[in-house]
Amino acid sequence: TNWPIWPTDYGHVWHQLDTELKLPFTILDIQMLEGYDLRRYNVIIIPSASTSIGALLAPHAKALASWVRGGGTLIAMGSSAAALTAEKFELGTTRLRRDALNDLEGYVEAAQREIASRRIDVDPAVVFGDTAPPPPVTTKPKVSAKNGLPLSFDLKKIKATKIRQDEYKRRFSPKGTMLRGLVHLESWLTYGCREELPLLFAGEFAFVSRPPVITPVRLAPAAMLRLAGLIWPEAVERVAGTAYLTTESIGAGQLILFAVNPTFRAYTKGTSRLLANAIVYGPSLGAKQPLVW
Questions:
Q1: What is the Cα–Cα distance from 209 to 96, expressed in whole angstroms?
Q2: What is the residue-wise DSSP string for 135-151?
Q3: pLDDT over 70 at 64, yes or no
Q4: Span 54-71, average pLDDT
Q5: Rg of the Cα trace of the chain?
Q6: Which residues, including other chains, have CB under 8 Å from residue 233's CB and lie 6 or more apart?
Q7: DSSP percent split of the chain into helix, strand, coil, nearest 5
Q8: CA gap 103, 231 in Å, rounded
Q9: How many Å apart are CA 47 and CA 4, to the nearest integer?
Q10: What is the pTM (predicted TM-score) of this model?
Q11: Could you give the CA distance from residue 86 to residue 95 in angstroms, rounded to a whole number?
Q12: Which secondary structure element, helix H or strand E, spans residue 58, and what is its range?
């Protein structure tokens, strides 16, 4: 708690812990983080905050990373999760979309494969018979001045164009829209959930992930993304298929990131359950914290 943590988002998490889960917890003052012995705690939750959260946490990056590698479960959401995706924190490989523009195609391909793998139709004739699957069809666009592609590419200009396009699309970020989430049912983080989950989504943070990151909940493809509310086509193009919830093993611990506050005003019970699973099951299922005598 304490600035720059948003008091309302802190209150939402407090209500989840105190009223819904009835769990004992310790309130840590983020302005005095250097005064705490983090080894006393098995789970640390960082609610959404102002954009200055990254600068405030930066001096404690090594301490947080060491605590996670020692078996801690670090949970962050919204802007706090976005801050922890920076490489300087050395906490996993989940990235903001705007920080991964140079390799965005790789992340998109990984997301498509992950979504497709959840529903696989196996043809026994191909698996056990002599019928070979057809080779994939690949086409390479012709590069010439006629089709608008230069004969020589200026990588700096291409990167600058991608940055400008992402900045423009961020202007259309949703402000409280119900979107469809695709649930990975084999993850312990989704215990009690069904294959699809309504997600209350707001803000500009779009997370991209690929193995070894596990993505228990991912936003649906563009054609089936919107459930209710307003979302502009530019925003659909930008956030469709991105990660809503990720988890990654780091040493003996783990980092769990939510793209938005999952327990906002306790509106959506499904996403509140995701947070409850992360808190309660995290220390035993996703981490290996040393035994304390």
A1: 9
A2: PPP-------TTTT--S
A3: yes
A4: 93
A5: 21
A6: 172
A7: 45, 20, 40
A8: 26
A9: 10
A10: 0.87
A11: 7
A12: none
